[in-house]
Structure formats: C-alpha cells, structure tokens
Specification:
The protein is α/β, with parallel strands linked by helices. The protein has four domains: 82 residues, Arginyl tRNA synthetase N-terminal domain (Gyrase A, domain 2), CATH 3.30.1360.70; 174 residues, 3-Layer(aba) Sandwich (Rossmann fold); 90 residues, no CATH class; 179 residues, Isoleucyl-tRNA Synthetase, Domain 1, CATH 1.10.730.10. The protein is 50% helix and 10% strand. The chain has 21 helices and 15 strands. Helix 4 crosses helix 21, helix 14 crosses helix 15 and helix 20 runs antiparallel to helix 21. The two termini are 36 Å apart. The relative contact order is 0.10.
C-alpha cells in the first residue's frame, strides 16, 4: 500500500471524470500537521482557467472522490485537505515493519551510473578541500543503490599531472632517489611525511626557479611515457600516497569500487586524439592541439580581480586542450580519455562528477567535447554536481590559526576529540571507536544538511551537539531505542516476531506524528535523487527523530500495564530504529548501541 499513490489515483480519476487538466493536479504534505496530513491546492489554478471561484472547484473535486483511506474536508478559500484514518496508518506501519525495505520502493526506471568522487591528488596531503567530495559522493552512491540503480564508484586519483614531475625533481635534488640513477648509491626511505615536505617545497620553487620548473615538466612527460627510472619512482610515490588516502577515506566510511586515476586512462589518449582528428575537430594553437567548444555568440563571465570594479569581465568559452606544445597530456586530455574508457568498460547511462563548483567550466568544456566527438552517446547523461567551500565561524575559508590549509586528518581528529569530550561529560570512559563514530556523524550531517552548491560554516561545537539538528542527535535517538529494546529483553528472534505480528495500533497524536513523519522520510529519498542534494533527507530524519522523542518522553512504554498497548509502543520504537538505520546508512554513518 502506497498512501500517496492511492490519493493521487483518486484525484486523477476525479480530474478525468470532471475533464480537468492533469497539469493542475497537485498533492503535498499539509503545513498544518496537527489537523491534516495532505493538501491539494489544484482548485486555485483551475479556478483561474475556468473563471470561477476556487471554492466551487474544490467542492466539485471533493464530491467526486471515491477513496476511503482518508477523511476529506474543505478549507477556504480553496484547499482540499486529507486526514489519513488511524487504522490506515496503523496498517501501513505494520506492513512496513514486516518488509525488509520498510516499503521503500525502487525507481521504475533503473540506470547504470558511474560516480566520480574523492579525487585526491597523489603526493599531496589530503586537506579540508578534499572533505566534501567523498562525503557527498559516498552518500549519493548509497542513495542511488537503495533506489535500484547499479552504481560503480571511482575515486579518480590525480596522479598524472605536473605535481608528479615536481615531486620527483625535488626528491632527486635532495638525494632521496639517487639509487635509481646510480646503482652505487643508496636511496633514502620515502614516507608520506617525506612527500608532505618535498611537494610543497617543489611547488614554491617552481615559481622562482625556471630551470627546475622546465626539468619537472620533462620528468612529467617521462612518467607519461613510462620511462625508467621515473616510472618506478612514480609508482613508489603513488603506493605510499594511496595507502594513507584509503585510511582517511575509510575513517569517513567512504569506499570505492575502483581506485583508478588519471594514469589509468593514459593508454587511451592516442585513440581519443585520433577520434577528434578524424572528425576534423582539432586545430593547432601555439604548438598545442585544441578543440573549440564555444557556441556561436557565447560568452562566459569571468570572476573579477577587483570586486569593486564595475567592468564586466567576459571571454569566449575557452577551447579544450588535448596536447601541450611539448606533447604532454593535460587535465582535459585525461578526463576526456576517462569518459572514453568508462564507456568501453561499463557503457553507463549516466556519469556523475562530485567536485568543487569552481571546476564547472572545465567539465562543461569536456562534456561538450565528448558529445561533439561521439565519445559520449547522445542519450548518456554527463552530470556535474559542484559544491561550495567550508568556512570558519568568521565566514572565511576554514584554516589553521597560522593561516595554513588544515589537513583532512586534523579535521577528523578535531571532531572526534569534540565527540569524546561530550561523551566524557555524559559519564563515558575514553572510547576512541565510539568517539570516531559520533565525530563522523557530526561531520557528515553538518555537511549534508546543506545543499552542495552552498558554502557552509564548519562549527565544531554545533555539529557535535547531542541536541538539535545534528548527526549525534540522530544517533542518540537510535541509541535510546536500542537501550529501550534491551531493557524490554527483546533479542533478534523476539524483534522479528514483533515485526510480523501487526501490533501497531495508532491511538494518539504523537503516534500519528511519527507515522506522518515516516511517510515524509520515505518520500525524501526521491526528493534527494531529484534535487541532487541530501538536505531533504537530513531534514526529514531530524523531524522523524524529533517526533519519536516527543512520543518517548510523553509515553510510559516499559511500565504500560496493557500488553496490547505496550507491544504497539515497542513495535513503533523498533520501526523508528530500523528507519533511522536505513536513513543513516545512506548518510554513511552508524547508529551506536549506546551513547
């Protein structure tokens, strides 16, 4: 039984009978939840078209409705309100309890989707700028899978650019890789700490040392040609970096099907360039091979150097670069070759990229290029989900006190320390594992509550609070139910029996609120899918948890003398717990046993 579908079907039959256009049919949750559950506002738009009053239209619709699951009423000037009957809500919750997916339906049309997120750079320390991509991408991968899509996730490492040549050049100058070039010499041990020192040093040096920069560019080309010993040094650097990147991503409950990088698609570059050449899409520009993707008369805004300057900075859409003048690959090349590779390997219906919104222009150019060349089929969706920056409470990009970019590992440690502090205040001993679970929930919920394209303020104290709209509050609600069920001596076998016995019997407004918020929670998954944001789910899960908390505080559950009522209360509690687990799994954090 799908309550909303039943109401919509009744409205559709009514519209058909009255010869009203379906374009005007609407049904949404009521903004007066204490009185009504759903509202239809169709009478207003229909009245304008038919030159009559909304009241006449609304009453004509009510008179022709046939469903029997809700009480229907009219409210001036033209609202049609539905209040679902208690017995219908009770049946729906009981059916949900006996269903492994809690009646959450998969989409009618299912797709094969490749998701590209994470995007860490080899030889560079992960920092706060790398946080949002794995957090947002992982949750969308889980959401799409839950709703029936086949999802392939790829972190697509940045392992093929100039940073590799710069790092090797610096390592060579500092004597770390001498043994690769002279067998009589010994290599120094390279660790992640070594790379964290060497790459920043090289990055600064390239700005003032022209010879060093040119040498790094040559080394980059050697890597791309797999020339020794540069290739072996590169592989060593990559392995060291990836092991640490995996560790930090796993702390965030982020896992990938593929650990490919820009290097993985390098073998397809020549094929890709040939496709563009054969289609006559390439021109030479100062020795480089480029593809024009601008449309006639098109201009794009460019960020002002001076915000106070009234001049509008505009330039034509820049071309895609396939080869530098020295023959080396560039960022455009590898991303286009990656789309080519993904279509060869998986033939997906959709490819989605989760990255900084400032990369929109890069991906727009690449998407246009692969469509022009036929590398991406016409019916394939190429989607860019851009996200904003993480700011401090001062509204500026979040940094250390010294003004440096903060490491991702330090962010995780900060939020985990804050969670442990809260646990200690609640009488818990030192518990690093539980503190990490709570810290990750705080961090993820704080991020995902916001729409991806918006900047947000990283407020540790607010995010880690056990009260209010936070991840730890959701966890605390679930932990409270775990404790309740344990006190009721309900083990797994007894819970399965409870779920199958239709014990739920809604008898007051608190229970109705839980039921309606459960319906809203189930609908929020589809809203997230449609809006490319997890914010609707975060709001829905908070409202759902809040409605249960009021029920919990107002109701004697374990001391209830009527066994039928007690069983109903416990069944409702278990439903809430299962729904919280289902939702937090999409958000990629866990409900702890206790906290």
């Amino acid at each position: 039984m799908n309550i909303k579908k039943i109401l919509l079907k009744d409205l559709e039959d009514c519209f058909l009978h009255l010869d009203y256009p379906f374009d005007d049919l609407s049904l949404s949750f009521s903004n007066r939840p204490e009185e009504f559950d759903y509202t239809c506002n169709s009478a207003f738009s229909l009245a304008k078209k038919m030159h009559t009053s909304p009241e006449i239209i609304a009453n004509s619709i009510i008179a022709n409705l046939k469903q029997d699951i809700a009480e229907v009423s009219f409210a001036k000037p033209g609202f049609i309100n539905f209040r679902i009957k208690d017995e219908v809500l009770s049946k729906y919750l009981n059916d949900a309890l006996s269903n492994s997916r809690l009646l959450l339906e998969t989409k009618e049309t299912k797709y094969k989707v490749v998701m590209d997120y994470g995007g860490a750079n080899v030889a560079k320390e992960l920092h706060i700028g790398h946080l949002r991509s794995p957090v947002i991408g992982e949750s969308f991968a889980r959401l799409y899978k839950l709703l029936g899509d086949e999802v392939i996730t790829d972190t697509h490492l940045g392992d093929w650019g100039l940073q590799m040549g710069l790092t090797i050049a610096q390592l060579k100058d500092d004597g770390y890789v001498a043994g690769y070039f002279d067998e009589s010499k010994t290599n120094k041990k390279i660790t992640l700490d070594t790379l964290n020192e060497e790459y920043p040093k090289a990055s600064l040096r390239k700005k003032t040392d022209e010879e060093f920069c040119k040498r790094a560019e040559v080394y980059t080309k050697y890597i791309q040609e797999k020339k020794e010993p540069y290739w072996s040094i590169y592989e060593t650097i990559r392995d060291i970096s990836v092991s640490r990147i995996k560790l930090n991503y796993e702390k965030l409950n982020c896992y990938f099907d593929l650990w490919y990088g820009e290097s993985t698609s390098s073998k397809y570059v020549d094929e890709v360039v040939k496709i563009f050449k054969d289609k006559g899409l390439i021109r030479e520009h100062e020795g480089a091979l480029v593809v024009d993707v601008a449309r006639e008369g098109e201009n794009i805004p460019i960020e002002k150097k001076n915000p106070d300057d009234p001049q509008l900075y505009k330039n034509p859409m820049p071309p895609v670069y396939l080869k530098k003048s020295n023959g080396a690959d560039v960022y455009d090349t590898t991303d286009i070759a990656t789309i080519y590779q993904r279509n060869l390997d998986f033939n997906p219906d959709k490819i989605i990229y989760f990255t900084d919104k400032r990369q929109f222009l890069h991906f727009e150019r690449c998407f246009r290029a692969v469509k022009m060349a036929g590398i991406s089929p016409e019916n394939q969706d190429l989607v860019f989900v851009g996200f904003g920056t993480i700011n401090g409470t001062d509204g500026k990009p979040f940094k250390t006190r010294s003004g440096d970019t903060i490491k991702l590992e330090d962010i995780i440690n900060l939020i985990t320390t804050s969670a442990q502090k809260k646990l200690t205040e609640n009488g818990f001993d030192e518990n690093p594992e539980l503190a990490l679970k709570i810290g990750v929930a705080a961090l993820k919920f704080g991020d995902l509550s916001n729409y991806p394209n918006k900047d947000y303020v990283f407020d540790i104290d607010k995010f880690a609070s056990f009260e209010g709209k936070t991840g730890p509050y959701i966890q605390y609600t679930g932990a409270r139910i775990n404790s309740l069920l344990k006190k009721a001596e309900l083990d797994k076998t007894k819970l399965e029996f409870l779920d199958s016995m239709n014990f739920i019997n809604i008898s007051d407004q608190n229970q109705r609120n839980i039921a309606i918020n459960f319906l809203k929670l189930q609908e929020s998954y589809y809203s997230c899918y449609k809006e490319s944001s997890l914010s609707p789910l975060c709001q829905a899960i908070y409202d759902f948890a809040s409605s249960y908390s009021k029920f919990y505080n107002d109701t004697r559950i374990l001391t209830e003398g009527d066994d039928n009522k007690k069983n109903s209360y416990l069944a409702i509690s278990h439903l809430v717990l299962r729904a919280l687990i289902q939702a937090t799994d999409v958000l990629a954090f866990e409900i702890p046993e206790r906290m």
